[in-house]
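Hey, I was hoping to borrow your eyes for a little while. No rush at all, and the record is pasted right below.
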Amino acid sequence: HLAARVTFHHGLLGGAELDVQTLRRAALLHDLGKLALPEAVVRKPAPLTPDEQTLARAVPHLTADMLAAIPFLAPAAPIVRDMAERMDGNGYPRRLRGERVPLESRVIAAADAYDAMTHARVYRDAIPPQEALLELERCAGTQFDPAVVDALAIAIAELSRID
């Protein structure tokens, strides 16, 4: 929902045309590959070992492969595959940089990070929304697309006025 909401701020995103239906599907299903991981890794309340990190880093590819096998979900596969890429090129799996990371992947990455920070996990408590936004802003330009972070902040403000 949040990722799709960000797309309504085309001006901040350079007016790019986005397929909102494909974006929503990718956002909803981006973690599907976690089903292939051992539950002990997915729910581990401590830092992952290097071997466990390797397994976890396979999730985007696993998910993309699953989506690609279903014709109406196939357009979401490349979006999911590239959502762990970073603006500075230090992401994975292809180490894409900047505009080479698909815009849809950049949108989902920022929205997913916000969601992850604002919801409790087995290894940490949730943080307040404003604190999560500050963290996204701190990482804008390295991990996240600054324009996407700006659009996300506007979308979050709009949603909080609606709720």
